[in-house]
Design goal:
By secondary structure, this protein is α+β, with helices and mostly antiparallel strands. The chain is built from 8 helices and 19 strands.
Length: 363
């Protein structure tokens, strides 16, 4: 911060000239290349001597040389901007593919550790636009207000996705249609909106707030070098898992659960406790669920696996047993069995939005 401005400017100019040499090395004539190299050396010498006047002159001369060889025009601006955008896209794709991938929590299977989409019915009017903007930015909350314009009946509720992150519902009635920023599941579960319901003119179909699911970063890098740890909150693909339906638009969904069992672990559930190899499961995440202090309720028996308190299950080799923290409302390995090793995506690392009490590292 104490470096003089002319020194900073001159150093940047040297780096720019060196970059230009590397970029245009095969196109420059020998004389032009020598002129640029001489200009760089002259400016470096002046910088080393801290001679303000000489540095200013050398910088101006080098700048004129570069401008003469690269005249500024609209094509150069477009080319440079396109290069910057392309590099940014490549870097972003690389990070998403190999290091960090954003993921949205769609359901409530991990609540209250991680929130899925939650609807809050209300009869009060929608708040003003400034409050709506603030609630969306901070809490990830949007408001819906659907009122029937005439006596009608809902015949169908269709789902539409926008940019993979936004799910909307189209309410198709006999005489009117509505597009609502909420999933069909949220409308049905939280607002009691489903095909066959009838409404009178002026009656509220759905009014209230919808909190988006937590948005998390998934660490895709660690599992390439270290094996998953028992108790990790992990993300996995659901392809080739019997009992999980594939979405016709997006393919097999991604799930996020807590890793309850590693290959070879013998698991047993005696509500509210989870036993691993005959001992009560250890770790902060397990202890929090098993304490059964609201809103946690402990672990519940399954449907196809771990169905009785005296029944155990040994996780097979190359498999992992997934359990939701919201055990009584989680569709997990108790229903469809272990997750194949090749389906692992990564470890849930960080809730980056919304900025509620979940924000931060995932435990």
């Amino acid at each position: 911060m104490f470096t003089p401005r002319y020194v900073k400017h001159s150093r940047l100019l040297v780096r720019h000239a060196q970059k230009y040499l590397r970029y245009k090395d095969d196109l420059l004539s020998a004389s032009n290349r020598e002129e640029i190299v001489a200009g760089i050396e002259n400016l470096r010498t002046a910088l080393g001597e801290r001679d303000h006047e000489r540095t200013h002159g050398a910088a101006e001369a080098l700048d004129k040389t570069l401008h003469r060889l690269t005249p500024v025009n609209w094509e150069s601006h477009w080319r440079e901007n396109c290069e910057v955008i392309l590099v940014a896209i490549v870097v972003a794709v690389g990070i998403r593919s190999f290091f960090l991938q954003p993921f949205k929590i769609p359901t409530g299977s991990m609540q209250p550790t991680l929130n899925g989409i939650i609807g809050h019915p209300r009869t009060a009017p929608t708040p003003n636009i400034l409050r709506q903007i603030a609630d969306f930015v901070i809490l990830g909350r949007n408001y819906i207000d659907v009122v029937s314009r005439e006596d009608d009946q809902i015949t169908e509720i269709g789902q539409r996705k926008f940019l993979f992150f936004f799910t909307l519902s189209r309410l198709i009635c006999q005489h009117q249609n509505f597009l609502v920023y909420a999933s069909p599941e949220t409308l049905s579960h939280d607002f009691s909106v489903f095909p066959g319901r009838t409404y009178h003119r002026g009656e509220i179909i759905a009014r209230g707030a919808v909190d988006t699911g937590d948005q998390v970063f998934v660490d895709k890098f660690s599992y390439n070098f270290v094996k998953p740890h028992r108790g990790d909150v992990f993300v996995f693909r659901t392809n080739h898992i019997s009992g999980i339906r594939e979405d016709p638009e997006t393919g097999s969904p991604f799930y996020i659960k807590r890793l309850g069992g590693l290959p070879g672990d013998e698991l047993r559930i005696d509500p509210p406790l989870l036993y691993i190899d005959g001992k009560i499961a250890e770790g902060f995440g397990f202890a929090r669920v098993m304490a059964a202090k609201l809103p946690y309720r402990g672990y519940a028996l399954g449907r196809d696996y771990l169905t009785q308190p005296n029944q155990s299950f040994v996780v097979p080799e190359h498999g992992y047993f997934a359990l939701g923290d919201n055990s009584y409302n989680s569709y997990d390995s108790r229903y469809w069995g272990p997750v194949p090793d090749e389906n692992l995506v990564g470890r849930g690392l960080f809730v980056y939005w919304p900025f509620n009490w979940h924000w931060g590292l995932i435990r």
